[in-house]
Each structure stands twice: as C-alpha cells, then as structure tokens.
Amino acid sequence: MRIALVHEFLTQLGGAERVLENFLEIWPNAMVHVLIYDEKKTHGKFEQYQKRLSFLNNWPLARTHYKLLLPFMTQAIESFKFDDFDLVISDSSAFAKGIKTDKLHICYCHTPTRYLWTEAKSYLKAMPYPFFLKWAGSSVLPYLRRWDYKAAQRVNFFVANSENVRKRIGKYYQRDSVVIPPPVDNEFFRPVSEKKDYFFTASRLEPYKKMEIVVGAFNVSGLKLKIAGTGSKLAALKKLAKSNIEFLGRISDDELRRRYSEAQAFIFPAEEDAGIMILEANACGTPVIAYRAGGALESVIEGKTGEFFKEQSVEAIKTVVRNFDAKKYNAETIRQQAQQYDKKIFQKKIKEFVEEKYAHRT
Question: What does the pLDDT read at residue 63?
C-alpha cells in the first residue's frame, strides 16, 4: 500500500508534528507532502523522510511571514498530485484536508480552521502587520471560509483528536468523525528529576496562547515561574515580567522532560483542541493547572491529575496557584492518566482504522 501523508507547515515542533512523527513511525516509507518546510526550525526531525514541497516553499516570505501567503495556500494544497499512491492521510488544522484526489483520503483533524470559524477577529487583531495588510486579510476570509467548507466535503473519513473537535467538525462541516486522541510517548516522558520550587509552562508565545495572563498572575503572586518557547510576544512578555519569572527560549525534548518533572505544576492557559502538553506533563508525574475549556476538560481529572481556573484572567490564575498544594497529588496516579493515551495505543487505533477503511474501499 503506497501512502501519502499531507501536513501543512513544518516550521515548528508542536502537537501536530508529534502526530506526524507517529504516522511516520507506522508508515516510514510514506511520502510527506508539505506546504512549507524549515529543516532548522524542526531540528532535522523530518530530514530522513521523503518529502514533496509546494511551490510556496521557495517564495521569499515562506519561512518568516507565511501568514501573508494565506491567499495562495488553497492553490498550493490543491497542486499536489497523488496518482502514484493508494491512500492519502492528512493531518489538518487548516489547509491539508483540501487536497484534490480520487484516492481514499482520511483526515486526522486537529481542529476546524480556527481563524475562519471561531477566532477570525482575534486572529486578525493579533497579526503583527500594518493595518492595510490586516484589511486585505479580512477581505479574503469569506472566500477562505467557503473554500474550507467545500474542502471538508472532499474528505472520505474524518478522525478527530478530541470529543471537543468532533463536535466542531459536525457543527462547521456537517461531517461525522471518530475520536482518536493524540499520542503521548510515555517511555520518553517520565519523571527524571526531583521536584523544585517553581511552576512551568511551555508554548508558542503568540497572542492566542494567553501567556500574558500567566505572567500577570505570577507577577502578583511572587511565585517562581519558568516559561519555555518563542514567538512574536516574547519581547513584550519579558518587558512585563518581574524577576521571579524566567524565560528559557526554545528547549530540547530532554530539557522539556526535565522541566515537566521538576515543576510543582504545569500551567495551561489557552483553550486548546486536545492539549498534548497536559498529558506529557502528567506522564512526568506533574499535575496541571488548566483553563476549564476545550480539550483540557477531557484530559484533566480535577483533584487527581490537576486543577482548573474558570476564566482566562490574572485573578483566576493567581487564586489557583496561591492555593495550590502539590503534596496532595500522587505522581503514579497522574502517570496512569497519561498512559491511557500512550503512543502505542494511538498507533494501533490509527493503523486499524486506516486498514479497515482501505479494505472496504478496495
């Protein structure tokens, strides 16, 4: 069976890239089709695999300001050809589901495109570009919304990464889907260090990640916080932060595991679709303090693997962290939650789903 994989942007390492890595562990000979690829920013993790890159990859703005290329993304994803494959598997949060093919197409959906259906205004507001570029962006969104809906109808079968996303696939695309949660590497993510007296968070430092309220809460509380990640808000957050807050920048997986292990708790302020970092922290025996919304509702067991705050505000986070008692949590109980999402379980479910659908197609 000749398999093609489709991924939008290999320009960072996040939850979507962990899913792609797992696909490639199942099907190492698959050809990865990707709109834009940056080997340096993905630390060479995908260097060994076969890749086909879109025409956008050679454009001057591709690696630095790819959001400006939004009007061309639909054409780029539709330009890929799959005549020499038997099956296509996309993992999509925007464009990857929009390929055109008569081959069986299964889409692992991280989310219906957020900036088209749920966060258009906040997305445009947060773009670090002049007003006229934001205006141009707003004018193209209605076209992209129509395209996105039509693109979703091309998919033969949807797999959602959470119940939360399954509902939104139904709401915005009128399509059914099954839920297979994203994978956690429990062999790698495990307790490796003794607990220390700080809290930890890791994220792309972009407006929608809500990191400014975490910084604000720890400014007020005076408790120690370490933040991993980079992004457009880094300079502003550093300017806002007091001396009890340390910025670690981009860190390796080894350091990420150590920070998870040492932290009193992992702070998760955004409304995410699944929240794989919640489970990675749990795999390291660390409880999570999360916003009570989205995928966190499916992965955090209140009082056993973590705690919630009710609103995305400085006051809400400050109250929870000040009252937080790490001693009431049992590391082994927390790890058991993460083990339910182990990568071996994910790979088995995905492989069985794909093989079943392919067998019925042929």
Answer: 82
E strands in the chain: 3-10, 31-37, 51-53, 87-92, 104-109, 157-160, 177-179, 198-202, 224-228, 245-249, 266-268, 288-291, 306-309
DSSP for 248-272, written as a single string? EES--HHHHHHHHHH-S-EEE-S--
Residue 25 has pLDDT above 80, yes or no: yes
> What DSSP letter does each residue of 183-230 carry, written as one string?
PB-TTTSS--S---SEEEEE----GGG-HHHHHHHHHHH--EEEEE--
The torsion angles phi and psi of 345, rounded to 5 degrees, stand at -65, -45
The verdict on residue 191 lying in a domain is: no
Q: Are residues 25 and 85 in the same domain?
A: yes
Phi, psi of 198 (to 5 degrees): -130, 160
62: CATH: 3.40.50
**CATH number of the domain that 261 lies in?**
3.40.50.2000
Residues 37 and 166 in one domain: yes
pTM of the model: 0.90
Domain that holds residue 202: 198-339
User: Same domain, yes or no, for 356 and 260?
Assistant: no
**Entry field: residues in the chain:** 362
The answer on 234 and 163 residing in a single domain is: no
Report the C-alpha dihedral over residues 335, 341, 344, 347, rounded to 10 degrees.
-160
Do 321 and 237 belong to one domain?
yes
Extract the tokens encoding 18: 């962990």
For residue 171, pLDDT over 70 is answered with: yes
Is the pLDDT score of 176 beyond 80? Answer: yes
